[in-house]
């Protein structure tokens, strides 16, 4: 009887102990490769607010300046989970990489910042200019779409492949006339160069999605980790929407911005965990761009069957309403 009472007390103590007070050994470990920018706000918040731990996860984070670097790290085995845009996802799918797209978490417009002295006031004014972009990312697709809307081709401009963080110094030095990228690099440029730069009105040209991707073998071996990770993101989405001012503080601190600089562009980011038309349209658009520009692996003749890399089951099990896409 005493042995029974002792076991009951121990069991009750374990049951009543909050996750946060359990040792790290009890938490399931995973490695996140994260593009450190506001587009990754949900993973940033989940980490900062202890939402991963509440789901029983111990998430270690490695930060990168692009989603392409993050996904390449996962494909190479250096991390388990990546935050990445549709461009690297499509490239990996076309290359036959066994990736698993498990959810979208954000979308926002890519933008163009110009040097005022370059006198770029309309799309047509881009002709003859030096424009920076980041190869293999949504920045490259956006640049192609922008030129198309201007009635131009890559032969009408000088394209310079730069990492996002290299664009502002290049514009300041006068070695480029404009750069195409995502926030906060546009806002950073406006703050640093002030009246010497101007934002070209390109709203609606290209909206980049940001997503969560793992390898298929990892998903098969660790379904519980992926499910808990997605649950933490859903909790982060709710927290961000309920506490926008605090969210701005958390994210700005993580990415090295001042809250007053992030606040004006915060509404540019749409944070939503799900797989719907926005994600599918972006994947298909990027795939078609790769076909049109012949920027794809040998032997690829059409838009890939994204059903092969889309794995909605973990998210659907958590909240079926968050999976709304249809593949034609």
TrEMBL record:
* Places the protein is found: Periplasm
Cite a single Pfam family from the UniProt record: NMT1
> Single Gene Ontology BP term?
alkanesulfonate transmembrane transport
The entry sums up its family as follows: Belongs to the bacterial solute-binding protein SsuA/TauA family.
Task: Name the UniProt key words of this record, in alphabetical order.
Answer: Signal
Coiled-coil stretches: none
User: What does UniProt give as GO cellular component?
Assistant: periplasmic space
Q: Where is the signal peptide, in residue numbers?
A: 1-24
* Superkingdom as given in the UniProt entry: Bacteria
Q: Which CDD domains match?
A: PBP2_NrtA_SsuA_CpmA_like
Which InterPro entries does the record associate with it? Answer: Solute-binding_3/MltF_N, SsuA/THI5
Q: Boundaries of each Solute-binding protein family 3/N-terminal domain copy?
A: 41-243
Transmembrane annotation, as ranges = none
Name of the protein this chain belongs to? ABC transporter substrate-binding protein
């Amino acid at each position: 009887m005493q042995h029974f009472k002792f076991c009951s007390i121990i069991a009750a103590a374990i049951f009543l102990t909050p996750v946060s007070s359990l040792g790290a050994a009890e938490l399931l470990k995973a490695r996140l490769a994260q593009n450190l920018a506001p587009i990754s706000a949900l993973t940033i918040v989940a980490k900062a607010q202890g939402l991963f731990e509440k789901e029983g996860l111990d998430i270690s984070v490695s930060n990168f300046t692009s989603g392409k670097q993050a996904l390449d790290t996962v494909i190479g085995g250096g991390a388990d989970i990546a935050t990445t845009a549709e461009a690297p996802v499509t490239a990996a799918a076309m290359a036959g990489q066994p990736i698993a797209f498990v959810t979208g978490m954000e979308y926002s417009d890519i933008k163009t910042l110009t040097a005022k002295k370059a006198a770029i006031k309309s799309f047509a004014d881009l002709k003859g200019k030096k424009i920076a972009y980041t190869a293999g990312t949504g920045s490259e697709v956006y640049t192609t779409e922008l030129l198309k809307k201007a009635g131009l081709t890559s032969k009408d401009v000088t394209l310079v492949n730069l990492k996002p963080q290299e664009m502002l110094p290049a514009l300041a030095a006068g070695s480029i006339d404009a750069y195409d990228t995502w926030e906060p690099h546009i806002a950073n440029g406006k703050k640093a160069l002030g009246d010497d730069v101007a934002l070209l009105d390109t709203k609606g040209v290209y909206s980049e999605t940001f997503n969560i991707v793992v390898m298929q073998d990892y998903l098969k071996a660790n379904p519980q980790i992926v499910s808990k990770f997605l649950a933490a993101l859903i909790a982060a989405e709710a927290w961000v929407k309920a506490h926008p001012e605090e969210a701005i503080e958390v994210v700005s601190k993580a990415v090295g911005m001042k809250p007053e600089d992030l606040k004006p562009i915060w509404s540019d980011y749409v944070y939503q965990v799900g797989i719907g038309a926005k994600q599918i349209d972006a994947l298909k658009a990027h795939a078609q761009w790769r076909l049109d520009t012949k920027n794809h692996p040998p032997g690829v003749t059409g838009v890939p069957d994204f059903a092969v890399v889309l794995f909605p089951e973990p998210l659907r099990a958590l909240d079926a309403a968050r999976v709304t896409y249809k593949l034609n």
